Amino acid sequence: MQIQSNICVIGNGAVGKAAALGFAQAGLSVTLLSPPQGRPDPAQAAASWDVRVYALNHVAHDLLTSLKVWQALDASRVAAVDAMDVKGDGAQAGNISFDAYGARTGALAWIVEDSNLGSALDAALKFAPNLRVVTGRAVELRTDLQGASVRLDNGDVLEASLVVGADGAQSWVRGQCDIGIDYRSYGQRAIVTNFECDKPHHGTAFQWFTSSEGIVALLPLPGQRVSLVWSAPEALAETLLGESLAQLAERLTTLSGGQLGHLRPVQPELVKAFPLTLMRPHAIVAPRVALIGDAAHVVHPLAGHGMNLGFADVGALIKAVSERESHRDCGDERVLGRYARARKEDIFLMQLATDGLERLFSADFEPVRIARNIGLNFVNKLPVIKRALISHAMGKRS
């Protein structure tokens, strides 16, 4: 069977679903290829709160609002980030803080569970015009001047003017295009789980940069709950995963200096770990192909912007395709070139910032430790620089 459309999106994550939805709402015919689903994780299904959360910035918020997805989220499970408190390490730990009032905005970001976001996108996709969801596994990608074709393992062929690779860090689409990558492992794993706290967090996201124990973030959830993202060195990650969550809670209570009171694991207990890498593909476009999300870039989660970069990709690609000249099709070389140029600076700056900060704060050398703590305190006293930093973090250019 042959299925024809203007756009073929490969990948069933939030970024791929948002791209398919956006193209369909723009009046284009879309095929969304979703891989066969494995068995659901029973532990995750039983959990009261998803351990995988995203700190969505204003770019992501605006895109999801325009797609009518934000309105479909369970608002009772979304927490606004009203302030950020970042600390260095050592006896003379530096500190820098941001708040929504100083940034002249209602919220700095919003913490959204992966399951909440996925459910809202799935609901919106059911009402999208000109969109077909196909389940299968791609085995071959061919492109020529007339278009692209994707052959599935069952023999079906998906034909389109443009193939969008939204299939993650190990992208099959990227591999079919022979796009090389620069890859570096951070030798860390992100430990994620949720806790209840005795004291209210007041919508504050806390983060501690330590040279020996990695980077620890506690993000606000609705009520007196927080979500942990601990970017821990491999050896420490093994230790943390071998401990009970009650022991991990005690570690965090000590690390936070009791700011949130005593921490307790959210029941039923659930913890996950993800390896951390830096991945820079040599290109994000190829003939008739555009990469978005983790297929196009993977960054350290210390700034929480991996998903935000992906949603910014979606917005830029939809804009480039929607504004193309009438004589150009969706996969035209010039159209894809505009998308690549539109995303180049933002991706480069985020990769540079996250990788540079990880290198700076992982250096366990006393003069460097002193210098970075002084730097945090210095920047904290400069409102103009702080506003510029938080404006960029929110996705706004100043």
Strand and helix map with partners:
Layout: E1 2-4, E2 7-10, H1 14-25, E3 30-34, H2 42-46, E4 53-56, H3 58-66, E5 79-81, E6 83-87, E7 95-99, E8 109-113, H4 114-125, E9 131-135, E10 138-143, E11 148-152, E12 157-160, E13 162-165, H5 172-176, E14 181-197, E15 204-210, E16 214-221, E17 225-233, H6 234-242, H7 245-255, E18 263-265, E19 272-281, E20 285-286, E21 289-291, H8 306-322, H9 333-362, H10 366-380, H11 383-393
Parallel strand pairs: 1-12, 2-3, 2-13, 3-9, 6-15, 13-21
Antiparallel strand pairs: 4-8, 5-8, 6-7, 10-11, 11-12, 14-17, 14-18, 14-19, 15-16, 16-17, 20-21
Helix pairs in contact: 1-4, 1-8, 8-9
Quickly count the helices.
11
Please report the distance between the alpha carbons of the first and last residues. Answer: 50 Å
Which fold does the CATH topology of the largest domain refer to? FAD/NAD(P)-binding domain
Counted beta strands: 21
Structural class comes to alpha/beta
CATH class of the largest domain, please?
Alpha Beta
Radius of gyration: 22 Å
* Amount of beta strand: 25-35%
The chain-level mean pLDDT equals 92
CATH superfamily of the largest domain: FAD/NAD(P)-binding domain
Globally, the shape reads globular
Helix content: 25-40%
Main pleated-sheet profile? 8 strands, mixed
